[in-house]
């Protein structure tokens, strides 16, 4: 019984820092998430239309449009890619 208590105490000691770290990052507020969703919808993304066949491409395209609108340069969003697309090189 004593070893069970020790195991539980060690498990608790290991999980507390992880739980507190998850809470300390601040994250986005509900209003920020809603504002981002509105921007994506204005850029052409429709989350509830049931078209899951084009999900990654549709959200990435909308994010790129929003990033272009929000940046002074008008480039693509950081971290965006054309994975799975056909290369223009050599054509």
From TrEMBL:
InterPro entries: DUF4148
Organism encoding this protein: Paraburkholderia tropica
The entry's keywords: Signal
UniProt signal peptide: 1-22
Protein name: Uncharacterized protein DUF4148
Pfam families associated with the record: DUF4148
């Amino acid at each position: 019984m004593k070893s069970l208590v020790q195991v539980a105490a060690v498990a608790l000691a290991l999980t507390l820092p992880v739980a507190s770290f998850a809470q300390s990052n601040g994250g986005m507020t509900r209003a920020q998430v809603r504002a981002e969703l509105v921007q994506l919808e204005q850029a052409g993304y429709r989350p509830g239309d049931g078209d899951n066949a084009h999900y990654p491409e549709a959200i990435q395209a909308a994010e790129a449009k929003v990033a272009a609108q929000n940046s002074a340069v008008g480039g693509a969003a950081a971290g965006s890619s054309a994975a799975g697309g056909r290369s223009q090189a050599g054509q």
